[in-house]
Specification:
Blueprint (H helix, E strand, L loop, with lengths): L28 E2 L2 E4 L2 E4 L4 E9 L7 E8 L3 H15 L5 H4 L2 H17 L1 H12 L3 H29 L3 E3 L2 E9 L2 E5 L7 H12 L3 E5 L9 H10 L5 E4 L3 H10 L5 E5 L2 H10 L7 E5 L4 E5 L5 H13 L9 E7 L3 H13 L2 E2 L7 E3 L7 H14 L3 E2 L7 E2 L2 E2 L2 E4 L16 E7 L2 H10 L2 E2 L1 E5 L3 H11 L5 E4 L15 E2 L2 E2 L4 H7 L1 E9 L2 H13 L12
Parallel strand pairs: 1-5, 8-9, 8-11, 9-10, 11-12, 13-14, 13-23, 14-21, 15-16, 20-21, 23-24
Antiparallel strand pairs: 2-3, 4-5, 6-7, 7-27, 12-26, 17-20, 18-19, 22-25
């Protein structure tokens, strides 16, 4: 089983906030099959107990069991890879050779079926990773919209390609074709959406997939296994679970992976890339760590700045790569900002994810409260204080958000991605200090600027866009809308995702070219008339 949360990690009692008699029914899902080569195979090996971070009132030392899932090994991982490779068959497989309209048809069938599993998936996300019921629903709904947007964008892309280029005596048609076999790995905090944000474009472009599920957030994928089996050809999508250290290195060492889509730490991503015998041939799409900062300028509207920094730093307990994880406030307004921000933080409702108005929920990662407490102790030893009233009080998996002030560069929290409800605030005097902070950071995903001074914003903007991948004005850092590029610099990302960019990431431009003469023109015309090729065509998709 996964390590359980320590029932002893208590500095206060939040007993009344845990699950009472009015709690909804606890799901229990035995994830006892796995998908390989179009078969739902019965799992007979070792399984891992899936715990919810939710404790029941009156059972202070007992976590809620919500199911189990397979702890698969190198053997199963390589079987899944064999199936994906056979389905691609060096480009000769059924799936990569299908015309795009037919692949879109498969995806539309899957989308319709997925809608019928929505509520079950939402419930599993809520219980396993303690995302509020509203946020869990948003994750699934956003994924459904993303699939439809991907279909629509691919149609536009294909229609733009339904033409010929004539240059230098050559006639050519250019289309995007599948790249090969893709390995998809997603994180626990968006276990459904982040998996599909790479898996869907990979599939619809004609690649075959091995999807490795996260160890936290694994159960929400069980309802879709039957859909994959029913709808897609054998081997097109294969799903494994268990320890990443046991399953992923053998797959990468095989050298048969063409694309790695990975969301996690830069250290793990580097290890997987270097395990490939030909890393120069491996296309990578990596979403990694971030330490996004908010810069609150003297001209900021403090009401807006507090509201957006609160959302940015503590939505889903701060467990988002796009979360604001450092706030730098101009020294002239620091005291006002900190006072207002602390009041707003302490007003956040803590409790169970199904309760109305709850914003802070139990933390799903084992020993997360211990790690956050260590960061706070380190900061306090180096001059910071927890400046909000209930900050850092802990009861098992519930951790009251803590505001640390003033933070400085000697503290771990100044540099480490805390990925949880601890918000460090520091001050600055000169604009150069903002640039120095970003330059010293190993990350470069996003930042947020709060100001009503157009001249000051313009001056900062021209530098910040060269240091991070997205600058947000008077709003929190975020990924959406999904049509916008999502990427990063340094250790925050490799590659760019959006609805459009993801389709490009999982494909390569291929060209049909011929000398422009009567004979070749007749051959091409005949192919087009008789629809003799899925690549060479002039049809329009509506």
């Amino acid at each position: 089983a996964l390590p359980t949360m320590s029932a002893e990690s208590t500095s206060t009692s939040y007993e009344e906030l845990f699950a009472g008699e009015d709690a909804p029914a606890v799901p229990h899902l035995a994830f006892d099959h796995w998908l390989c080569n179009g078969e739902l195979r019965k799992w007979e090996g070792e399984s891992c107990v899936a715990y919810s971070p939710i404790f029941k009132q009156g059972a202070a030392k007992t976590q809620t069991v919500i199911g189990s899932f397979p702890m698969q090994t190198e053997k199963e991982a390589l079987e899944a890879l064999d199936a994906a490779c056979a389905a691609f068959d060096q480009g000769k497989g059924v799936w990569p050779r299908l015309n795009v309209a037919t692949r879109i048809g498969y995806m539309e069938r899957f989308l319709e079926a997925l809608r019928t599993r929505r509520d079950q998936i939402v419930d599993l996300i809520m219980w396993e990773i303690c995302k509020t019921s509203d946020d869990a629903a948003k994750e699934v709904d956003r994924t459904i919209i993303y699939i439809q947007d991907t279909i629509d964008e691919l149609k536009r892309m294909e229609n733009r390609s339904s033409t010929f280029t004539q240059v230098g005596g050559v006639m050519a048609q250019i289309r995007r074709c599948p790249y090969g076999v893709a390995v998809i790995c997603s994180p626990f905090n968006y276990p459904f959406n982040e998996s599909y944000a790479t898996m869907i474009p990979a599939l619809i472009m004609g690649n075959t997939v091995v999807m490795k599920l996260p160890r936290l957030g694994v159960l929400c994928h069980y309802p879709t296994l039957e859909l994959f089996r029913e709808i897609f050809p054998p081997g097109v999508i294969n799903v494994i679970s268990g320890s990443g250290r046991s399953t992923l290195p053998p797959i990468m060492k095989s050298g048969r992976v063409d694309i790695l889509a990975f969301i996690g730490t830069s250290r793990a991503a580097s290890a997987l890339q270097t395990a490939h015998p030909n890393p120069h041939r491996l296309r990578a799409c990596l979403g990694l760590e971030a330490k996004n900062a908010a810069f609150v300028l003297p001209s900021a509207d403090l009401k807006v700045a507090v509201e957006q920094c609160l959302l940015g730093s503590l939505s889903y307990n701060g467990q988002r790569c796009t979360a604001i994880k450092m706030i730098m406030v101009h020294e002239s307004i620091a005291e006002q900002f900190v006072e207002r921000f602390c009041s707003a933080v302490d007003a956040l409702k803590m409790g169970m994810p199904w309760s109305a108005g709850v914003k802070i929920t139990p933390l799903p990662e084992p020993d997360k409260t211990k790690y956050l407490s260590e960061l706070i102790a380190d900061a306090e030893a180096k001059g910071a204080k927890v400046v909000n009233k209930r900050g850092a009080t802990v009861d098992r998996t519930l951790f009251a958000p803590a505001v640390l002030y003033p933070a400085n560069k000697e503290m771990r929290i100044f540099h480490e991605e805390q990925f949880g409800p601890v918000v460090p605030i520091t001050t600055y005097r000169e604009e150069q200090e903002i640039f120095d902070y970003l330059a010293a950071s190993q990350y470069g995903q996003q930042c947020a600027v709060f100001s009503q001074d157009a001249k000051a914003v313009g001056s900062l903007l021209d530098v910040l866009v060269n240091m991070v991948a997205r600058v947000n004005l008077n709003s929190q850092c975020q990924r959406g809308p999904d049509v916008l590029p999502f990427g990063g610099r340094k250790d925050s990302a490799y590659g760019t995702l959006s609805v459009y960019d993801a389709l490009r990431t999982f494909s390569i431009r291929s060209i049909f070219a011929a000398a422009q003469n009567d004979s070749n023109e007749e051959i091409v015309s005949q192919i087009l008339r008789e629809r003799g090729s899925n690549f060479l065509r002039m049809d329009y998709m509506f």
